Amino acid sequence: MPRSVDVARLARVSQKTVSRVFNNEQYVSDEVRGRVLAAAEHLGYRLNNAAGVHYDEFGNLTRDLPVRAAPGSPLDLPEGASATCWVDGLTVLSDADVLATYEHPHFGRWPAITTRRHGRGRVTYVGTVPGRALARALALWLAPTPVSGWSGLPASVTAATGTSPGGRRVHVVHNWSWEPARVRPPLPLSDALAGAPVPAGRAGPHRLALP
């Protein structure tokens, strides 16, 4: 089975460039993009080879569907884990492991989440838009130790971390509740909106903070 490194070698580019092409990212010239796609076509490289699954159809959802962990799955799914918006009709091609399935007489024939080891990592495919409980459980399995350092957040609070165009580390903290919530920053921060230091503090109802 061809790998991304094989495509990179044939196209005379880095694996990062191959990833950028298949993720449709910028910073790749048309000439290089064409070389990568031609190499992938020649080798028969497909992303679904790495994932071990493909889908032929999907169904829109008019209501959320319950999702349960598959037998032997490492996922610890809570009550209320659900799929929203749509369901991909996934077909397992090879040795991909099914992590979760839908509780539904029709959609239950397809896996909701699969994973497969590939190279030095793994490819995990989520065939739906996960509800919050499912997304949280999946994130805890993928990254048991929080990368951003935010921990112990109330149920109504989300925190995302990224890098600004200027190279600064940016933390976006949002309280989705009508009630105030208290959060503790992982390190001393300053509020980009208020221009004030952010100690362990309070996020007001439906308040967005950009420390």
* CATH architectural category of the largest domain: 3-Layer(aba) Sandwich
* Proportion of residues in β-strands: 25-35%
Q: How is the biggest beta sheet arranged?
A: 7 strands, antiparallel
| Broad structural category | alpha+beta
| Average residue-wise pLDDT | 85
Helix coverage percent of residues?
10-25%
- H/I helix tally: 5
Shape: flat
- The total domain count is 3
Task: Give a verbal description of the structure.
The protein has helices at residues 4-11, 15-22, 30-43, 47-51, 132-142; strands spanning 53-60, 65-69, 82-92, 97-102, 111-118, 121-126, 128-130, 157-163, 169-175, 181-183, 189-190, 197-198, 201-203, 208-209. The model has no long low-confidence stretch (mean pLDDT 85). The protein has three domains: 4-45, 434 Repressor (Amino-terminal Domain); 50-142, Class I glutamine amidotransferase (GATase) domain (Rossmann fold); 157-209. Strands 1, 2, 3, 4, 5, 6 and 7 form a seven-stranded antiparallel sheet that branches. It has a three-stranded antiparallel sheet with strand order 8-9-14, with no helix packed on it. Strands 10-13 form a two-stranded antiparallel sheet. Helix 1 packs across helix 3 (30-43). The chain has five helices and 14 strands. With 211 residues, it is α+β, with helices and mostly antiparallel strands. The chain is flat, with a radius of gyration of 21 Å. It is 22% helix and 35% strand.
Give a quick summary of the entry.
Pfam families: Glyco_hydro_42M, LacI. This protein has 211 residues and is of the alpha+beta class.
